[in-house]
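Deliverable D5.2: sample structural annotation.
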Amino acid sequence: MAKAVLNSFSDISSVELKLPNLHFIPVNISSKDNAIVKFNDDVYLPTDEPHGTIEASLSRFWSKM
């Protein structure tokens, strides 16, 4: 996302992001009794821990040449 902003707008020199730290764990819904259901890591359960925010920044490299 930040790279797309820097590539699209030459006047912007840096982008800072602050995002929620969300976690999802895979849930295996298949069972021995139900061989029809195949588990392909495609069902996820949201969790409330850990939580908080993740911060990232991306800056444009300016050549001094």
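Annotation notes: The mean pLDDT is 82. The CA atoms of residues 38 and 48 lie 27 Å apart.
The annotation will be released with the project's public dataset once the embargo ends.
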